[in-house]
Amino acid sequence: METQQHWESVYRAKAPDAVSWYAPHLTASLAYVQRTGLPTSSAVVDVGGGESTLVDDLLDAGYKRISVLDLSTRALEVARERLGVRGRLVDWAVADVLSHDFAPRSVDIWHDRAVFHFLTDAAARERYVAQVLRALRPGGFAIVGTFGPEGPELCSGLPTARYDAPGLHGEFGARFMLLDDRVDLHTTPWGSQQQFVYCFCRLES
């Protein structure tokens, strides 16, 4: 509850384009979603999606089964309002990814650019990976972006964990086949750069 209140305060205090992670388009994320080669009827979940514009680009690309999960009610309200009537095509969930009741094997593509690097406790990371294993069908894809080794140690007042690609992949384990990784430099709304690392994996059976 304390963490949820923190993020509600963040999103109510700042405009959508005034938070450090804002980007008009998450180009790397969308490219990886499309690189899966799965049809646009596939189930895609954006964990910690908040006000992110990835949902807009997924709808533009024709994806039909999109879920966006976030702790903040306010963040999801902003995204829904931005989308207008198209927001009705998206499944919105105010929830904690660590405790959300995902239907087993219900997700084809799991995307996260916002949550994992805030899990500084090993037990929380283990719970997160267990949730991915529960939700993702065998053969499905996990796309996870975190702060890289040169990324910020603090974000929105909270400590972060930073990863290189081997370290990030290692948190998920051998069942996740690493297909690709990349370093992405994100430019904040005020012109500074943040280093992100992406891992693109397929869940083996």
Distance between the termini: 35 Å
Identify the CATH class.
Alpha Beta
The gyration radius over C-alpha positions equals: 16 Å
Q: How many beta strands in the DSSP annotation?
A: 9
Tally of separate domains? 1
Largest sheet: 7 strands, mixed
Percent strand equals 25-35%
**Based on helices, strands and strand pairing, what is the structural class?**
alpha/beta
Q: What is the count of helical runs?
A: 6
CATH topology (fold) name: Rossmann fold
Helix percentage: 25-40%
Give the SSE order as H and E letters.
HHEHEHEEHEEEHEE
- Overall pLDDT metric: 94
Q: Can you identify the CATH superfamily?
A: Vaccinia Virus protein VP39
Shape, per Cα inertia axes: globular
CATH architecture: 3-Layer(aba) Sandwich
- Work out the oligomeric state of the chains in this entry: single chain
Provide the spatial order of strands within the biggest beta sheet.
Answer: 3-2-1-4-5-9-8
Structural account:
The protein has 205 residues and is of the alpha/beta class. It has one domain: Rossmann fold (3-Layer(aba) Sandwich), CATH 3.40.50. It is built from six helices and nine strands; from the N terminus they run H-H-E-H-E-H-E-E-H-E-E-E-H-E-E. The strands form two sheets. The chain has a seven-stranded mixed β-sheet with strand order 3-2-1-4-5-9-8, with helices on both faces. Strand 8 and strand 9 form a beta hairpin.
